[in-house]
Amino acid sequence: MKAFLFLLIACMAVTAQSKDDLKKKYGQPVAETYLIRPGIIVTASYDSTGKITEMLIAPQLTSLIKSKGITLRHETIDAVIEDLIPLSERGPARFGGFMNIGCMPQNDCYGSYMDYERVIIYYNAAPRGELHYAVVQWK
Fold first, then answer.
1. Count of alpha carbons within 13 Å of 52, Cβ hemisphere only?
2. In this predicted structure, what is the pLDDT of residue 118?
3. What is the mean pLDDT of residues 44-48?
4. From CA 45, how far away is CA 21, in angstroms rounded?
């Protein structure tokens, strides 16, 4: 009888939490992720009024281990940024530069940035001139 109860419990269907379950438990989300092109996602983060404060553009990582081994071409990310926030919405370019910041343990915080009137865009560098991700942040 004990074996039967164990088998019954072990075979019961396990349901995953839904979006509504998480909202009930934690309130409104502060970010949402969208698949904007095959293999490319954008995670939009919001302030308390629902206004977008930041967008993270990155490869879609569907494996259990979220490795930085998958990269995107700079031209691809620039095209996505142009779709999401055209130059007319960014305002005039002010200046740009390179960042060489030591972030432990992988020392992977180097890249470049471009500062516009209303946003700043950071490109996280990867080998061979490609990118791990880009961040658009509103001022």
1. 16
2. 97
3. 95
4. 20
Asked whether residue 15 carries a pLDDT value surpassing 90, the answer given is: no
Q: What element of type H or E holds 57?
A: strand 52-59
β-bridge mates for residue 111, sequence order:
99, 124
Residue 11 has pLDDT above 90, yes or no: no
Q: Is residue 41 part of a domain?
A: yes
Residue whose tokens read 């934690």 = 26
- Among all chains, which residue has been given the structure tokens 């691809």? 76
**Tokens 């164990």 identify what position?**
6
What is the domain extent for residue 49? Answer: 32-138
Tally the domains of the chain.
Answer: 1
Across the chain, mean pLDDT equals 86
Give me the torsion for CA of 63, 68, 70, 74, rounded to 10°.
Answer: 140
